[in-house]
Every structure is written in structure tokens, then in C-alpha cells.
Amino acid sequence: MVFSLKVILFLSLLLLPVLKSSQVTLNNNGYDGIVIAINPSIPEDEKLIQNIKEMVTEASAYLFHATKRRAYFRNVNILVPITWKSKSEYLIPKQESYDQADVLVADPHLKYGDDPYTLQYGQCGDKGQYIHFTPNFLLTNNLLTYGPRGRVFVHEWAHLRWGVFDEYNVDQPFYISRRNTIEATRCSTHITGVNMVLNECQGGSCIQRPCRRNPKTRLYEAKCTFIPNRSQTAKESIMFMQNLDFVTEFCTEKTHNKEAPNL
């Protein structure tokens, strides 16, 4: 698997609204023409470029495995703001621009904070507009929250390139199955775990306890959380919780959870 990553000096001073047109192509299983652009408002930080390189390199191997050797990232361009110090390895951009970038590194969005996200307007199967990462996400170790950054990139790439949606649902984390059992919204259902209320505190002491069923909704109480077991036989899904060590694949037609109330 050949992977090349070149850094290009970003020269565009004005961020003008233009028609989005990605230059990404898939040739002989390798994605070429991916553009990652750093917003001009971001202060210069060499570690930021290094971490982007490491993230995409890690993501390439993860994607290669997840797609059964069908795809990997072969060529990625990083657009650096013109306000940063010029270096000999920086090249002059040809067609690459911030406005047409596939991935933006910019300040936090009011709604998402430092959480990575992909802007999606369309239905399932429609490509997204761009992936958004913040400098804090790229510079801070958040393994417990997100998992390795390379895995997060693959999760977001699936949103962007293939138009798939998350296989979890923050607003409806549980549902009643056809078997009349309460199930966590997830894919696949082969992922086992326990349903717990974490850190319930009274009188200065905190406990963890099993979730109670709400007689009105027939679902678990609002504070209930599904906690996957550490030992699993399931390998999917990247669109559910890519931060779990055992998750290395996407859900397929065979393993897709059609009952789950996710988008």
C-alpha cells in the first residue's frame, strides 16, 4: 500500500462562496486528490501538520482493512495558510482551495464544539459537503472519548464520501425490539453490554446501578447508558462506536440493524 502526503502552501486570502466540487478520485483502490485545508485564523503550529499526517496515515490502514482491501488513502494535500512561515517543502497550489476542501481544520462550531462532524444535507447515499476538525481535537489526546484519530477520520469519511449516517442515536438511545425487549440503538446487535446509570450521587456518595424501566415509555430511564463489554466477538460497526478496540468493520446488509431508530 503506497501512501504519499504532500504539504501545499495555501495562498487564497479571501474565502469566497463557490460551488462545492471535490477533486477526489478512486483509482486502483487508492483515493487521490483529498484536500485538507487549515483555516487562516488558526495560529501556526507544526504539531498540527504532523498530527494530520499521522491521522491520515493511520486512517489509510484502518480503511484498507475495513473495506476488505478495496480502498485506502494514497494522496492527500494539506493547504497551509499563507500567514504561516514559508518552507522549502511547501508547493504552490494548482487547483486546490479552501472553499473546495474535503476536510476543514477550523475553530469549533457553536453546536458541536470540538466534536468532529461532517456537514450532510442530503439523504442516505448522498455525499456530504466537508469534514470539520478543530485544532484542539487534532492536538489533544482524547482516546477515551473518540478513540484513535485515524479511526475518527474513517468514520467521518464514510459520512462524506458514501453518505451514510451514524448508527447511534443520542435522542433515542434505546428502542423496543420486535421481541418486546429493550435494545440499545446500535449496529450490530451482536455487540453485547450492560445498561447502567453511571455516577448517581446522593449525600456525597456516588454509585452505579442497573437501569430501571419507565412504565410510561416502556423504555429505560433517561440517565441510562449502554456500556459495551470489553470482550466481544462482533467487529462492527465503525459508524456506531469506532473508539472500541474490537470494531474494525462497517455493518453490512447481513449485519445491519434494521430495527434501530437511527438516521
UniProtKB/TrEMBL annotation:
Task: Using the record's annotation, list all stretches that form the Calcium-activated chloride channel N-terminal domain.
Answer: 24-263
Q: Which superkingdom is the protein from? A: Eukaryota
Extract the InterPro entries matched here. Answer: CLCA_N
Listed Pfam families: CLCA
Position of the signal peptide: 1-21
Q: Does the keyword Signal apply?
A: yes
Is Isomerase one of the keywords UniProt gives this record? no
Q: Give UniProt keywords alphabetically.
A: Signal
Query: What protein am I looking at?
Result: Calcium-activated chloride channel N-terminal domain-containing protein
Q: Which organism is it from?
A: Macaca fascicularis
